[in-house]
TrEMBL record:
Substrates-to-products reaction catalysed: AMP + H2O = D-ribose 5-phosphate + adenine
Ranges where the Pyrimidine/purine nucleotide 5'-monophosphate nucleosidase C-terminal domain occurs: 335-455
Enzyme class: hydrolase
Pyrimidine/purine nucleotide 5'-monophosphate nucleosidase N-terminal domain ranges (all copies): 9-115
Protein name: AMP nucleosidase
Amino acid sequence: MEHDVVDTLISPEGMLEVLSKAEVIKLLDSGKGGLYNIFRNCALAVLNCGSTIDDGKELLERYKSFDINIMQRERGIKLEIKGAPAIAFVDGKMIKGIHEHLFAVLRDIVFVSNEVTDNPKFDLSRTDGITDAVFHILRNANVLKPHLNPNLVVCWGGHSINRAEYNYSKEVGYQMGLRGLDICTGCGPGAMKGPMKGATIGHAKQRTHQGRYLGISEPGIIAAESPNPIVNDLIIMPDIEKRLEAFVRTGHGIVVFPGGAGTAEEILYILGILLHPENAEIPFPLVFTGPETSREYFVQINQFIADTLGPEAQKRYKIIVDDPELVAREMQAGIKEVREFRKARSDAYYFNWALKIDQEFQKPFAPTHENMRNLSLHKNQPTHLLAANLRRAFSGVVAGNVKDEGIRAIEKFGHFEIHGDPAIMGPMDSLLASFVAQSRMKLAGKAYTPCYRIVQ
């Protein structure tokens, strides 16, 4: 079936107007060391904004004829785009927010390739080297603002949520916007779009003209979670681990809405970090929230954390059901504490250098069948490391659900097998089964076929 498509030629505005010959060659090279495939896939995802696809493979197959070329002109570069989804245009002209996102993708892919991956200055085998790389990618994207007081709330939650949960996330965003808080999300639909939409109205009412709506993505997930155009700063991190680190280093607090396997992964990531003994004293407001209809979801998440990570982990978050104002006030108070803590220690407001992130949370995890089978899911290890391994298990489920590579691997080799202690596998099986029952794995209207099998 052919979908409406548009051909166009666009110029960058203000950033990346000039590329070197070597950069252009690398961007147009579809070979192993080239960047063309990653650039094309991310560009297509950005242009597909607002659609109801959450399947990387389906998106690439739907727009097979999509092509993007870089043309060197005497006054700088132009992008020649063929077969772009018509949803990105109004009366034949590209929506401005999408236009900006397209060049943000180009900026980050060029920077990461030239300045990070191929740069001996960054030792990506070391913890501090990885954190340094995350810092430089964010600084290059101009999202680190040294003169602002802490006010950035990271909102996590599912891309596949129901209307009541979506409206609730919007109301929470609105209450935070009224209190001058800015929003950072994974930039896709659902619980990532709601808080930004709500905050936009809150900021407008308070005449806050500099409202920040940060969207942080990565190449594997962007096709499933196309950035919504409210995002006024889009950053593409090289992998899921650096994306998660960017969230916790730049954000001053986190609100978690209902979601599926990806949200469970994020919860395990932040709890694993907060459970590290060296982070015991660091204030980090963390609130789980949803409407009354989602109460059961948080009961299940809370029970899963109790069964696997124990009561110490439960002390690091608050669950607030059906009270957007309280969530906003809780965040405001928590962030005030963060400011006082950092001020007393002369720490930066714009980047959380003090947070100790274990290398187990930083090493990119490739969710292959073998890696998934060999995960260390047992109780006789430090709790923060168990959290790291549980995060990887959920990361694999996300890959099998929505990422192009993951979907193809499942088609070829069958289910991922997840092995571990019965005391951990039982609760994990129940939690994943509840996500399936509540349609949290895929967007509404799509039948879900599990990509995993729990082996006790």
